[in-house]
Specification:
It comes from Halopseudomonas pertucinogena. This is Membrane protein. Keywords: Membrane, Transmembrane, Transmembrane helix. By secondary structure, this protein is mainly alpha-helical. The protein has one domain: Amino acid/polyamine transporter I (Up-down Bundle), CATH 1.20.1740.10. The protein is 81% helix and 1% strand. The protein contains 16 helices and 2 strands. It has a two-stranded antiparallel ribbon with strand order 1-2. A hairpin with a 2-residue loop joins strand 1 and strand 2. The longest helix is centred in the N-terminal third of the chain and has 34 residues. It is globular, with a radius of gyration of 20 Å.
């Protein structure tokens, strides 16, 4: 795996992790609530992450995509692609706003600060980052990822090792946990929950992954990076799921389980975990506002920087609605968009799996002439 593959893998992971992994609460709702069978659901999500990451990064590299809308037009056609682009952009902006609210909630819970302070600090960081060039943004996101992995792995492995509940007690606690609802009803099976998890998070990761893939002229390296990033996300979700299950007797009703696990080890570790959560939220917020702004202006231009600042400041105002309310409103509908994306990506793979990169690149050039 060369430098490009490694960079794509880290950036893919860093964008997705903040939107779907940060608090640990999402893991409990999508997987741990099904008991030990939830581990199988997380394996389903891992396989989907790897497959989807591979194909998105590959076709983006072949097209030399500058934004996610070019890839959408290839997957859906021009008219349907425009509709999906507008809908996806709207919900991605909602996720970005949710991340600003999440920063405020995290700092409020750990340090007692007013939520507006945390949201404002995150907004300033996002605007400053989006004023960098694309490579700078990717390098910054990639640099954050190792710290996040170390923190999450350390807390999760230690919590598994120190688990005191019996399997029967943990299963009983898991049965009391809230299970994710979709279109007003509880999801009845762990496999379907794994599919929904992947659909939600690929919708979050798709725009930045499309841009990152488009920066390399080596489709095979891009595809390898997508696979590696997807498997990394899968490994992390499997480990987190096991960690949450091993401590379910102590996590029922806890809003941010990962922070609770860290606090049980040592208060100073909880402080570091809070920083890690902020870094996760930051990575996702940058990815969301970047993708939304790229919809209206070419990255690295003054117009792009100005629009990024305006969108982030408007997002700051909207974030005061509250983190929980925003997530509850935006995420279910984003999952629907993600399911549509998964179907389109699978159909694209079936159409192109026997064609060479050169043939696909030639077709792409012909379509844009």
């Amino acid at each position: 795996m060369n430098k490009h593959s490694f960079q794509i893998a880290l950036a893919y992971m860093s964008v997705v992790i903040g939107g779907g992994f940060a608090s640990g609460n999402e893991v409990i709702q999508f997987f741990t609530g099904y008991g030990i069978a939830g581990v199988a659901g997380s394996v389903v999500a891992a396989v989907l992450f790897a497959f989807l990451g591979m194909h998105i990064a590959r076709i983006s590299s072949i097209m030399q995509a500058g934004s996610h809308k070019q890839v959408l037009y290839t997957l859906f056609g021009e008219k349907a692609g425009l509709v999906v682009d507008v809908v996806l952009s709207f919900f991605l902006y909602g996720v970005g706003v949710g991340m600003l609210a999440g920063a405020g909630s995290t700092l409020a819970q750990q340090f007692g600060l007013a939520p507006l302070i945390g949201s404002t600090l995150m907004t300033v960081l996002v605007i400053g980052t989006l004023c960098l060039n694309v490579r700078g943004i990717i390098n910054l996101n990639s640099a954050v990822m190792p710290f996040l992995l170390i923190m999450v792995l350390a807390v999760t492995v230690y919590s598994i090792y120190t688990s005191t509940g019996s399997r029967e007690e943990l299963n009983q606690a898991a049965e009391q946990a809230a299970i994710i609802t979709f279109l007003g009803a509880e999801v009845p099976h762990w496999a379907l929950s794994g599919l929904l998890w992947a659909s939600l998070n690929i919708a979050v990761g798709f725009p930045m992954l499309a841009v990152i893939g488009g920066l390399t002229k080596q489709p095979k390296a891009a595809a390898l990076g997508g696979i590696a990033g997807g498997l990394g996300l899968g490994f992390l979700i499997i480990l987190l799921n096991i960690g949450m299950f091993a401590n379910m007797d102590r996590l029922l009703g806890v809003e941010i389980p990962t922070l609770q696990l860290a606090n049980q080890i040592h208060p100073w570790l909880a402080m570091l975990m809070s920083l890690a959560l902020i870094c996760m939220i930051y990575s996702t917020a940058v990815g969301m506002f970047f993708a939304f702004s790229a919809r209206f202006a070419a990255p690295e231009t003054n117009r792009f920087r100005a629009l990024s600042a305006i969108f982030a400041l408007v997002g700051l105002a909207l974030s005061q609605v509250g983190f929980t309310k925003l997530v509850g409103t935006v995420y279910p509908m984003l999952g629907v968009v993600g399911l549509i994306l998964i179907i389109a990506i699978a159909m694209s793979w079936l159409r192109t799996r026997n064609r060479s990169d050169e043939q696909l690149a030639s077709d792409s050039r012909a379509r844009h002439q």
